[in-house]
Each structure stands twice: as structure tokens, then as C-alpha cells.
Write a structure and sequence with these properties.
Length: about 200
């Protein structure tokens, strides 16, 4: 597996741009679309008003440490930054990354954006970097994301009970999913069909 490095990924009317400090205000605006920070079990919990720069700094520090690679999501028909996502828990020794810390402004949820981002990220992980597995973690309260993982074709590996703290201090059960390199062609076909149905 090639070590992930900052790179721009583009296709399907979105562009993933390496996150940096200049994106803090735009991410705050995206999170304000639906006041997403009020949903305490999603990645935007740290993007409450006034905390945008700390949120970005934490992500950039994870990149410097080598265990994260964060992006902002730009929707190309509008040019607006509509969310963020990242690789995290990068483990080069076993050719593994996880995709998470993902959020989209409410007005862009249930559009092409999530499918487009997953298509770009998974292709980069498997086809460019040579990953053997891509993982996902979902809060047990986040039922929409659990349904999305199932629809994507990810394998549900199990539930880690009382596994991680939420921003509000409560302990969350974490649903763990994965896609193996051998499963990627079927997942890619499913994503391509979904995007084609949207004319992309």
C-alpha cells in the first residue's frame, strides 16, 4: 500500500480538496445548513459556532501525524463547499484505511454528493493506493448511516459496545463495516449505477 498523501479527487460533479485552515469558515457555513452540530453523534459535533478553527486544526494535526487525510467537499455546479470527509486510522502495515468524519450540509444530503464522494474515495483507496480493506465506523444512534452502509454493499463486521466517547460525554456503541479489495468491483458497479441514474 502506498502511504496516503494530500491529493485532489474530482468527478461526478464534486471535488475533494485537501483540507487546510483556510476552509474553516466554509465548513462552519456547511454545518450551519441544518445546524448539524446539534446532532451529537456525527462528525459535525465539533463544528459548533466558534469552534471551526479548532476542528480544522485537529484534522490537520492528524494528517501531520500520519493517521488521517482530510478533505473538504466542493459541489461543482454551485462551487460551494458542502461538507467534509477523511481517511482515518490509516494502518500501512496491513494496507488499511477507514473512511469517516463525514458530513454534508442538510440541503445536499440525499443528493449525488455522498455517492460521488464514496466513489472517489474508494477508487483512490483500492485502485491508487492499493488498500486491501476500507473500514467504516457508525454510531449505533446513526440509523441513516447504517442504512447507507448496507445499501453500499459494505460488510457489517459487528458492534463494539461502549467503545468510544461522544462529544457530549456519553459512551457510544460503534457499528463496524468493511469492504475488501475483492469486494470493491461489486461495490463500484453499484455506485456507478446509482450515479448514472442521476445522469453522472
Amino acid at each position: 500500500m502506498i502511504a496516503p498523501r494530500p491529493v485532489t479527487l474530482q468527478g461526478y460533479n464534486v471535488r475533494l480538496e485537501p483540507l487546510d485552515e483556510s476552509h474553516a469558515d466554509a465548513l462552519g457555513s456547511a454545518a450551519a445548513d441544518g445546524e448539524l452540530w446539534k446532532i451529537w453523534y456525527v462528525a459535525t459535533a465539533g463544528l459548533a459556532p466558534g469552534l471551526e478553527r479548532a476542528y480544522v486544526s485537529e484534522a490537520v494535526e492528524g494528517q501531520r501525524a500520519g493517521h488521517m487525510l482530510p478533505w473538504v467537499v466542493r459541489e461543482l455546479s454551485t462551487g460551494a463547499i458542502v461538507g467534509s470527509t477523511r481517511f482515518h486510522d490509516i494502518v500501512l502495515s496491513i494496507d488499511r484505511v477507514e473512511i469517516g468524519y463525514t458530513f454534508y450540509a442538510r440541503s445536499w444530503q440525499r443528493t449525488h454528493v455522498n455517492s460521488a464522494c464514496k466513489r472517489l474515495l474508494l477508487a483512490h483507496a483500492f485502485d491508487t493506493l492499493g488498500c486491501q480493506v476500507v473500514g467504516f465506523r457508525v454510531d449505533n444512534l446513526n440509523l441513516p448511516s447504517q442504512a447507507a452502509m448496507t445499501a453500499l454493499g459494505a460488510h457489517r463486521d459487528g458492534i463494539l459496545r461502549h467503545f468510544q466517547p461522544r462529544r457530549d460525554g456519553s459512551a457510544r456503541d460503534t457499528h463496524v463495516y468493511s469492504i475488501l479489495a475483492s469486494e470493491w468491483p461489486a461495490v463500484k458497479q453499484r455506485l456507478d449505477a446509482r450515479l448514472a441514474a442521476r445522469g453522472l
